[in-house]
Design brief:
Elements lengths: L7 H14 L2 H10 L6 H10 L2 H42 L8 H21 L12 H11 L4
């Protein structure tokens, strides 16, 4: 039986599918959808021979390092914006009573908006908030407070 030779491009596409799914059978299905009839055994052989696990780990490490750099940059930017806001706070505290600086107010408002957006990006809050009473509490209120069964 002759072995079919596959191009490096097909092997690379197989790796990218595997990297996304980490599942040999899923890679076979995705390649089949693209017109390639490659067996799961072949994919498993490539995964071992071409050391896809190590390659995937290296890619993950690089992504994490890039994300860490982004977070560090954003945190630094947040600190700088906070310092600038504090300077404006001092400026406004020292303005004579009745004096209004519209341009400074505009900049201050923009600065506060950027601070809020950046804080939410760095530390996103849970968007799903539990509102209302829980069923257990409703039952307790009915029984103990209202005297209903």
């Amino acid at each position: 039986m002759s072995k079919t030779q596959y191009s490096n491009e097909i092997k690379e596409q197989a790796f990218l599918f595997w990297y996304d799914t980490r599942n040999d059978s899923e890679v076979v299905r995705l390649l089949k959808n693209r017109g390639y009839n490659i067996t799961r055994t072949t994919i498993a052989t490539w995964r071992v021979k071409l050391d896809w696990n190590t390659r995937a780990s290296n890619i993950d490490a690089k992504k994490q390092a890039a994300q860490d750099t982004t977070i560090s940059f954003e945190e630094t930017l947040l600190q700088d914006l906070q310092k600038q806001k504090e300077r404006y706070d001092v400026y406004f505290d020292n303005l004579p009573a009745g004096k209004v600086d519209n341009q400074a107010m505009y900049v201050y408002n923009q600065l506060c908006e950027k601070l809020i957006n950046l804080r939410n990006k760095i530390n996103p809050k849970d968007k799903k908030k539990n509102t209302g009473l829980k069923h257990e509490n409703i039952d307790e209120i009915r029984k103990e407070i209202l005297g209903l069964d």
